[in-house]
Amino acid sequence: MAIRSLFQACLLTPLVSLATAGPILGKKGLMAESQRLADPNYGPKPGQSPLFSTYYGVEAPFPANLTGAVLPTQAGKPGLDDQVWQNLLSAEWIIFDFYQQAVEAFNASSFVAAGMPNTTYQRIQEIRNNEAGHLRIFQNQISPTSVKPGKCEYQFPFYDAVSFLALVTVLEVSSMAFLTGLVEQAVLPSSQGAMVAISETEARHETWSLIEIWKTNPFAGPADTAFPYANQILDTTNAFIVPGSCPPENPVYPSPRQGLPALSAAKNTTSLTPGSAIALNFTDPTNQPSFDPYTQYYAVFFHGLANISVPVDTSAFPEQPILVTIPAAFETKGVIAAVVADTKGAPTVDTVVAGPGIILEQPSALATKLL
Q1: What tens digit of pLDDT does each residue of 268-326 get?
Q2: DSSP state for residue 339 in the 8-state scheme
Q3: What is the rounded CA–CA span in Å between residue 230 and residue 178?
Q4: Distance of CA 40 to CAs 43, 82, 140, Å?
Q5: DSSP letter string over 98-125?
Q6: Of 59, 140, 259, 368, which sits 20 to 30 A from 324 (CA to CA)?
Q7: Is 267 exposed, middle or buried (0-12, 13-18, 19+ CB in 10 A)?
Q8: 188 with 81: CB under 8 angstroms?
Q9: Which residues of 165-182 are buried (b: 16+ CB within 10 A; e: fewer)?
């Protein structure tokens, strides 16, 4: 869509006036500009403006062109679900910028040359637009008594079109897993409903990736994986944030934050399908777990709506790796979320001592390439 046509479409959108339709494209980081986002009627509206669906430009669309934190405009107590929405908005900045960086780094030919359909770049732009709409939705869910987090700087481990698309699959399935946990955290039914609606959109993104890109069956069985401790998954995305790059007004992300050791399978793992024997790898050398010699620990695997605990021997760690077998009872579908816990089943958030690690099962061949 041409820029002129885009502006015309936004001006025709209900409740968007000439005065409020200005900040459509380009990056503006000044707090004074970003503070206008405190007005929920400022700028194009998700669900009403085509900007969030069919904009095919390279520059970041509204509201991602206004990157500063938005300060409270009223005094008073935070809204009941403000902390949940703040966490989700901070996560959404990461997801949006992941797609925005790809839009800037690649073009249609990049994906065609990699053997992908000729519509791939356009779909990436459309997903980017949806994610921009999520930014605005989440901003508007936070009450005027709380900070709306701004954008940090991010670095992602992709180096070409194929490695980018592999990360798309992991990030989309991870987002569905943490959204189930955030729904459990939310107090207001309106918040819970909004999060379910967002997760449905993320599921559409993932379905496109599985069918069009990886040519695989998109069905994950009767239920996708529900992981109860959403903040633990959110915390793993801190690895993408450039240290010291966030607006100083931003709250801690996620809040509350446990800062658990990151968990993955060892680099030399050849299979991550159910029934595979793997060695656990705690990927941050500065944040390693410490195990009580008198406590039995478990690798707890979440899949669908169930979890299975497998006792692990931690007595020789770190001199020897911790070995475990992924439960063979699981279908090779969807994703598995794995943690190390000091209690069977990881029944509470404080029983988790490391993780989570997200194990991709569709397509399963992609999982080990992401280690």
Answers
A1: 999 999 999 999 999 999 999 999 999 999 999 999 999 999 999 999 999 999 999 99
A2: E
A3: 4
A4: 8, 15, 6
A5: HHHHHHHH--HHHHHHTT--TTHHHHHH
A6: 259
A7: exposed
A8: yes
A9: bbbbbbbbbbbbbbbbbb
DSSP string, 8-42: HHHHHSTT--TTTS---BS-B--HHHHGGGGSTTS
**Which residues pair with residue 341 across a beta bridge?**
298, 352
Residue 156 burial (10 A CB sphere; 0-12, 13-18, 19+): middle
CA-CA distances (angstroms) from residue 316 to 261, 321, 354? 18, 8, 17
Q: How far apart are CA 352 and CA 307, in angstroms?
A: 14
pTM here is 0.91
CA quadruple 305, 172, 348, 322: dihedral sign: positive
pLDDT tens track for 217-268: 999 999 999 999 999 999 999 999 999 999 999 999 999 999 999 999 999 9
Q: How far is CA 224 from CA 114, 172, 294, 302, 334, in A?
A: 30, 12, 35, 10, 6
Q: Sheet containing 297-303: which strands, arranged edge to edge?
A: 306-312, 297-303, 335-341, 352-360
